[in-house]
Every structure is written in C-alpha cells, then in structure tokens.
C-alpha cells in the first residue's frame, strides 16, 4: 500500500513555472508547501538516465536536507525525429539563462535539417515523472505522458518552457495558448490534459486524501 502524504511537503524545484503548477495541483488537497528555493536548498546534480531517476534524485535530496516529505518532478519534451531529444536534457538545451526561445529555434533547425516538415514527421510527447520521498528514503513514483506534435512557429505566452512549441493531439492550439485550468485542471472541472496532471492524478489516487 502506498504511503499517505500529510502535513507540509517541500516542492523540490527552483523553477517558478513548475512550482506554480505543482502548488495549484496540491492546493485542493489541503497540502501546505514550501519550495526548495524558498528553503535555500542546493540543486542536486541530475545524473539519472531517465526522468524517473532524476525526479528521485531531486526528491530524496530535498527530503533529506529539509527532514520533511518532498515532491519532485522531472519532465521533458521527447521528439521522435530527433531520436528522443531533448528528452531528459530539455532544461539543459535552454542553457543557464533558460533561453527556451533559443532552444525552440534549435529544435526547428534540426527538424528542417532532417526533413521533418509535416505533422506526421514531427511527432512528440511530453513526459512527467513525479516522485514523493520521505526523510527515511521511502519513495512513491508516478509517470504521465501526453502525445502531440511540434508546431511552428511557437504560439502563446502561457505556461513555460517548450509549451508554445507543443500542440497536444485533439487540439488546434499549443500548451502555450491554454490557460492553467485548461492545461492541468483536474476532473471533474478540467480534463487532466498535461503530462504533469496525468502523473499527479495517479499520485493523488495513491497518496492523497480526496478533497
């Protein structure tokens, strides 16, 4: 049986966009949050070979340092025509200045070089791996995925990261054009569309008490 989460949880991120989404997801469950940034916790080196491994590294580091349960996400954009890149290196492609516009331009250049011009040639998916960790090293892990295509040009100024570049299947707009409620609002009000929302619904079913 999965361990239940209660009390205060540390959100193991220094990314303001991810922090905002995670807090919005946790809020209906009455879970109080602090962030790794607010606690001045160092960012561990992400040496994992998978999204799940990197989420585990971040969650365990924050749980041990804070002596509280910690919640971490590792997510990224996986593009078929680029052999799965940027994948677990999605944030790294934006560089230390978080230049995601530059990273999106790089993706477009590489896709054109490979002759990927039609939607069918530009298939991609977002993956989110979530990990809950406790100071005693107990972990609970969940993963969500959403499929779509790499759109061009990038559209929308909502969300963060590669959101303006990604159009989910069944939609004519990108993640960057969707409101927070449309992107990761949970049922019954929302569709639980995003990769992070889909992973979170699994986590909530296992580890959280219904609001």
> What fold name stands as the CATH topology?
Maf protein
Indicate the structural class.
alpha/beta
Low-confidence stretches: none
CA radius of gyration: 17 Å
The N- and C-terminal alpha carbons lie at a distance of 20 Å
Fraction of helical residues: 25-40%
Strand order of the largest sheet: 2-1-3-4-5-6
What CATH architecture would you give? Alpha-Beta Complex
- Average pLDDT works out at 93
- Beta content: 15-25%
The major beta sheet can be summarized as: 6 strands, mixed
CATH class bucket? Alpha Beta
Q: How many beta-strand segments? A: 6
Number of domains: 1
Order of helices and strands: EHEHEHHEEEHH
- Counted by DSSP, the helix tally is 6
Q: Identify the overall geometry.
A: globular
What characteristics describe this protein?
single chain; alpha/beta; Maf protein; 211 residues; 6 helices; six-stranded mixed sheet
């Amino acid at each position: 049986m999965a361990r239940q989460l209660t009390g205060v949880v540390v959100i193991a991120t220094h990314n303001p966009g991810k922090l905002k989404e995670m807090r919005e997801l946790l809020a209906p469950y009455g879970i109080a949050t602090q962030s790794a940034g607010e606690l001045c916790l160092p960012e561990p080196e992400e040496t994992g070979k998978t999204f799940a491994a990197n989420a585990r590294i971040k969650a365990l580091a924050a749980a041990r340092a804070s002596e509280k349960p910690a919640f971490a996400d590792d997510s990224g954009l996986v593009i078929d025509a680029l052999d799965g890149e940027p994948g677990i290196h999605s944030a790294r492609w934006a560089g230390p200045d978080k230049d995601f516009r530059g990273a999106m331009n790089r993706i477009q250049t590489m896709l054109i070089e490979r002759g990927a011009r039609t939607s069918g040639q530009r298939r991609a998916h977002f993956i989110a791996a979530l990990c809950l960790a406790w100071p005693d090293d107990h972990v609970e892990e969940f993963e969500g995925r959403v499929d779509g295509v790499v759109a061009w040009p990038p559209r929308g100024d909502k969300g963060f990261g590669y959101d303006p570049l990604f159009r989910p299947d069944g939609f004519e707009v990108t993640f960057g054009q969707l409101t927070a409620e449309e992107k990761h609002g949970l049922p019954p009000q929302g569709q639980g569309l995003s990769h992070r929302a889909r992973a979170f619904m699994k986590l909530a079913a296992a580890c959280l008490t219904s609001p």
